[in-house]
TrEMBL record:
InterPro entries: Alpha/beta_knot_MTases (IPR029028), tRNA_m1G_MeTrfase_C_sf (IPR023148), tRNA_m1G_MeTrfase_TrmD (IPR002649), tRNA_m1G_MTases_N (IPR029026), tRNA_MeTrfase_TRMD/TRM10 (IPR016009). It is an enzyme of class 2 (transferase). One of its GO terms (molecular function) is tRNA (guanine(37)-N1)-methyltransferase activity. GO terms for biological process: tRNA N1-guanine methylation. Pfam families: tRNA_m1G_MT. It is found in: Cytoplasm. Gene3D superfamilies: 3.40.1280.10, tRNA(m1g37)methyltransferase, domain 2. Belongs to the RNA methyltransferase TrmD family. S-adenosyl-L-methionine binds at residues 113, 133-138. One of its GO terms (cellular component) is cytosol. The keyword Transferase applies. Homodimer. This is tRNA (guanine-N(1)-)-methyltransferase.
Length: 234
C-alpha cells in the first residue's frame, strides 16, 4: 500500500509514523508513506495558501489553487490511482468498518487542512471523501490523518506480530475487547480470574465473550444496536 499525506506541517508526522507498528510496516515494505508540504505550492513570494472567506466571518479558508496544484503533483508520484480522503469534522466518522475498507485499497491520498477549513470546491473538484474521528474540533487535520494511517496500517497483512491480533481487538467483532491479565496472579488484593488459568479453552472463550458483552453494555451501549452478538449467543 502507498499512503500520500498532503499537509502544511509534515514535521508533525515524524514521531507517530517513526515508531512501533507504522515504522515496522514501512521497514518491512508493507506500506510506503509519503508526505508533501502544501506550502510548497503556495502563491507568490510568501507561498500564500489561505484567504478570507467570501460572505465574511472569522478565520481564514484554504485556497483552491495551492491544494489543486499540490494534489496534481502528488497524483503523478505513482501510477496507481488513489482514494482521496479529506480530514474534516463534517465527514463520515471513522470506525472499524471503514478502516477495514480502507486497508484493502492499494493507495490512499489524505488531505489534512488547517484554519477554518477548505474552499468547498476542493472537495468537489478532487472528489475527496470527508472523514472525521469524532464530534469535536481540532486545530487541524494532521492528528486525524495520523489516526487514519495508524488504524489502517495495523490491518495490513504482516503488520502485527500475531495473526489473530487484529481480529481480536476492540470493535473488530462489534464489541469492546475483553479484559487482559498477565503476571503476577495477585496484585494489591486483585486476582487474575481463575478461568484464565484453568487451561479450559472453551470456558476461557465463553468468559471472554461474556466480558466483552458486559463491557460494551457498560461503556458503549450504542454499539449493541449494530452488534451481531446477543445474550443468548454468549
Amino acid at each position: 500500500m502507498r499512503i500520500d499525506i498532503m499537509t502544511l506541517f509534515p514535521e508533525m508526522f515524524a514521531g507517530p509514523l517513526g515508531y512501533s507498528i507504522p515504522k515496522r510496516a514501512q521497514e518491512a515494505g508493507l506500506v510506503d508513506i509519503e508526505l508533501t508540504n502544501i506550502r510548497e505550492f503556495g502563491l507568490g513570494n510568501y507561498k500564500k495558501v489561505d484567504d478570507t472567506p467570501y460572505g465574511g466571518g472569522p478565520g481564514m479558508v484554504m485556497m483552491c489553487e495551492p491544494v489543486f496544484n499540490c494534489f496534481e503533483h502528488v497524483e503523478q508520484l505513482d501510477p496507481e490511482p488513489g482514494r482521496v480522503l479529506m480530514m474534516s469534522p463534517a465527514g463520515r466518522k471513522l470506525d472499524q468498518k471503514l478502516v477495514r475498507e480502507l486497508s484493502g485499497e492499494k493507495r490512499l491520498i489524505l488531505l489534512a487542512g488547517r484554519y477554518e477549513g477548505f474552499d468547498e470546491r476542493i472537495q468537489q473538484g478532487l472528489g475527496a471523501e470527508p472523514v472525521s474521528i469524532g464530534d469535536y474540533v481540532l486545530s487541524g487535520g494532521e492528528l486525524v490523518a495520523m489516526v487514519v494511517v495508524d488504524s489502517v496500517v495495523r490491518l495490513l497483512e504482516g503488520a502485527l506480530g500475531h495473526e489473530e491480533s487484529a481480529t481480536e481487538e476492540s470493535f473488530s467483532e462489534g464489541l469492546l475487547e475483553y479484559p487482559h491479565y498477565t503476571r503476577p496472579v495477585e496484585y494489591k488484593g486483585m486476582r487474575v480470574p481463575e478461568v484464565l488459568m484453568s487451561g479450559n479453552h472453551a470456558k476461557i472463550e465463553l468468559w471472554r465473550k461474556e466480558q466483552a458483552l458486559e463491557r460494551t453494555k457498560k461503556w458503549r451501549p450504542d454499539m449493541l444496536d449494530d452488534c451481531d452478538g446477543t445474550d443468548e449467543e454468549v
